[in-house]
C-alpha cells in the first residue's frame, strides 16, 4: 500500500483525490490537510484524519506521497516541507512561478527525492498539448482559448500557459502575431506568450476546456480538449502517485511520465 496525504483535502480537487485514492487497491489516504477555516466549516471525509498542520500530519501519519491541490502560495511551501521530511510531492496546484519550480527542482535533486508537478492531469489534455507541439512546427500563427469555471483564481490557466510555452519551445522561435493599431479596451487581444495570444473565459457551468487554434494559408487547425468532470484528472493523479516513488528528482508534466515528449 502506498500511503498518501492530501493537501487541500476539503477543496474540489482534493475531495476527488481522496475518493479516487480510497478506491484504488494499492493506495490509501492516511491524512488530509487544509486550512483551519475550511476544517472548521465542514465535516471530515469518512475515516480521514484532518489537520491544518502539514508537518504534524506528516510526522503522525507517515505518508510516502503528498498530493497537493491547494493554492499557488501554499503549494510551494507544502512541497518544500514534504521534501525536507522525505515525502514525495505530487503537485497539481497551478500558478507557481518559474523561480519556485527551479528551487523545488534543486531541492528534489539535492535530497534525491522524487517530486512531480503537472499543470494538467487529464490524459486527453496531455495529448492535446502533445499534438499542439507538433502543430507548432508547421504553423506560424496560433492562439489559445482556455475556458474555466468562475471560481478559478489564476489566468491564464497553467495548462494554457504551458501549452503556449511548449509550442514556442517546439518550433524554437516566437510565433508571428499581429499587433493591433487600436485596442479600445486594454487587454482586448489577451495575454501574449511569445506571439501566442491567450484568452481566458470564466463562467459558471464550465469545468476546464482548452482550444489551440493554428491559422495558416487558407486553413485553420483546431485542437480542443474538454474536461467535463473533475474525475477526468484522477487517472493521471493515480499514475503520478505510483510513478513518483520511482523518481529521484523533480519531473514536470504527465507527458514525460507517459513518454509523450517531442
Ligand atoms: P479549491 O478552492 O476548491 O480547493 C483548494 C483547497 O485548498 C481549499 O479547501 C483550501 O482551503 C485549501 N488550502 C488553501 N491553502 C492551503 C494550505 N496552506 N494548506 C492546505 N490546504 C490549503 O480549488 P480546486 O478547484 O480544488 O483547485 C485547487 C488547485 O488545483 C488550483 O490551483 C487549480 O488551478 C488546480 N487544478 C489543477 C488541475 C491539474 O490537473 N493539475 C486540475 C484542476 C485544478
Q: Spans of 5+ residues with little confidence (pLDDT < 50)?
A: none
Tell me the name of the CATH class of the largest domain.
Answer: Alpha Beta
Shape: globular
Bound molecules: nicotinamide-adenine-dinucleotide
* Mean pLDDT level: 95
CATH topology of the largest domain: Rossmann fold
What is the topology, as strand order, of the major beta sheet? Answer: 3-2-1-4-5-6-12
**What structural category arises from helix and sheet content?**
alpha/beta
Helix content: 25-40%
The tally of helices reads 9
Total strand count, please? 12
Strand content is 15-25%
Radius of gyration: 19 Å
Distance between the termini: 34 Å
User: What letter string, H or E per element, gives the SSE order?
Assistant: EHEHEHEHEHEHEHEEEEHEH
Q: Return the CATH architecture of the largest domain.
A: 3-Layer(aba) Sandwich
Q: Find the CATH superfamily of the largest domain.
A: NAD(P)-binding Rossmann-like Domain
Tell me about the largest β-sheet.
7 strands, parallel
How many domain units?
Answer: 2
